[in-house]
Design goal:
mainly beta; Porin; 4 helices
Length: 477
């Protein structure tokens, strides 16, 4: 699911309260979720290839999944082929605080990632296909009663790509394939807002004084913030395959970046603090409820329901690899993948109330991944597959948060293909994702804290791993 925090600048709240105005500093809203690939990418778009750690660009499986793994591979299919399935991702993770030793656990339910392909090889030189897959998307669910809830506690992202594809045999040894992509993306974001960061609405204190300066504890929740939105985007996908020799093949593909401009609604609901400001505070001579002071923010202030627009770019992917028929039964493959995560850099946020508009820097870095895998035909009916994958983390040290606590990852895969009938094949696979522990943070800068160091912010250790199980049914007509 990717990370997407933001924070409002100081804004003026108007309404009837003990004093006429309250200035607020609010909201790092976000989105992300632990995924099986780099950043918030999902590479498990076909169970046959998943069992080989995703190594398939030079020799895709003949089940139509080449629409994702290499469009030129549609010429590996015969007649009409229809396949569909899903991968279940069961993620487990935690954050261990440096100072208290407290371990907070991720609360994700298993996530299903579906895929569906149909192809038709109309002649030896020409094939057509249509694929529906989810290359980017995630989910993170954390408790609401820990510090990380102010970065985000229940958030989701889903990007579905629909890709019509055509593949053509250019020469005896060269095949190409390509297709346009229509993408649809949805986001759901939730987080807590901190009362201690809100400015005190009084002329009796210096400008910029916050309720934290009056003794309200850091990370006192007084509001829940939620955002929902969706968007469409357009891109393209192209691939090539070359037979170097009768036993060695080369393949490459390029998936274009797609920019989504999300339009949706932001809404806010109060969370009672139960706190009282003591007598002779800057707002009143007598004790007053903090909840009452902040109440008008939800009526006619900045925390009213409003429209919001933001823009995110799903990154480009460039993959190249080789496949070798070691024997008539054994095929080995190796792929290199580059992903252009630097496109996830600056996030503009445009609210209905212009005073809240801002930009957020994420500064993701381009990444590399190496995949090696193979398949062995045990019998005419059963094929055994396995593989290994290593991928780099995209998030820099400063943005390792509850939204996407990512680090370098190692994956081990295994699977079995079963030719049930001449017209029916079933593939099953298992993948273990082991992530290196990585230091990260659960908070942004405190009010008045200017440009804190990474060492000051990163206050604990994130651990993460996942189990993935995939199944695909393929029918040959």
């Amino acid at each position: 699911m990717w990370c997407f925090p933001f924070q409002f600048p100081n804004s003026t709240l108007t309404g009837r309260a003990p004093l006429p105005t309250t200035a607020l500093v609010i909201l790092p809203l976000l989105f992300s979720l632990p995924a099986a690939g780099q950043g918030f990418s999902v590479y498990e778009q076909g169970t046959c290839t998943m069992a080989q750690a995703g190594a398939a660009v030079a020799s895709p499986c003949g089940d139509g999944s080449s629409i994702f793994f290499n469009p030129a591979g549609l010429l590996e299919t015969e007649g009409v082929t229809v396949s569909g399935g899903a991968t279940a991702i069961a993620a487990q993770g935690s954050f261990t605080d440096d100072y208290t030793g407290t371990e907070t656990e991720l609360q994700n339910d298993p996530i299903l990632v579906p895929h569906l392909y149909a192809s038709w090889r109309s002649s030896p030189d020409l094939a057509f296909g249509l694929g529906v897959y989810v290359p980017y998307g995630l989910e993170t669910v954390w408790p609401t009663d820990w510090d990380g809830a102010f970065e985000g506690y229940e958030n989701g992202l889903q990007s579905v790509y629909v890709q019509p594809t055509v593949a053509y045999q250019v020469t005896d040894r060269i095949r190409i394939g390509a297709g346009p992509i229509l993408g649809h993306s949805q986001v759901t974001l939730n987080q807590r807002i901190d009362a201690s960061a809100q400015a005190v609405p009084s002329d009796q204190v210096p400008e910029g004084t916050t309720f934290g300066n009056l003794g309200i504890p850091f990370h006192t929740a007084f509001a829940d913030a939620g955002l929902e939105g969706d968007a469409f985007g357009f891109g393209g996908h192209v691939g090539v395959m070359v037979d170097i020799t009768d036993r060695i093949r080369f393949g490459s593909r390029f998936l274009s970046p797609i920019t989504f401009t999300y339009e949706g609604d932001a809404d806010f609901s109060p969370v009672p603090t139960g706190l009282q400001l003591p007598a002779n505070n800057p707002l009143a001579s007598s004790s007053v409820s903090l909840d009452f002071v902040l109440e008008s923010a939800f009526v006619n202030g900045p925390l009213v329901e409003q429209s919001i627009e933001t823009r995110l770019t799903m990154p480009a992917q460039l993959v190249a690899g080789v496949a070798m028929d070691v024997t008539d039964r054994l095929v080995l493959q190796a792929d290199y993948q580059w992903t252009g995560w630097s496109s996830f850099d600056t996030i503009p946020l445009d609210f209905e109330r212009d005073a809240l508009d801002q930009e957020r820097n994420e500064d993701y870095e381009n990444t590399s991944a190496v995949r090696v895998g193979g398949s062995y035909d045990l019998t005419e009916a059963f094929t055994l597959r396995g593989g290994y994958l290593f991928n780099q983390a995209a998030a820099p040290d400063r943005t390792v948060t509850p939204l996407l606590p990512e680090a370098d990852r190692h994956h081990v895969t295994a699977g079995l293909g079963w030719q049930v009938l001449d017209q029916v094949t079933v593939n099953v696979s298992y993948q273990y994702l082991g992530q290196n522990d990585r230091r990260g943070r659960v908070r942004g800068p405190r009010p008045g804290e200017e440009d804190p160091s990474i060492e000051d912010l990163n206050s604990g250790l994130y651990s993460f791993h996942a189990h993935l199980i995939g199944t695909t049914l393929t029918i040959f007509l």
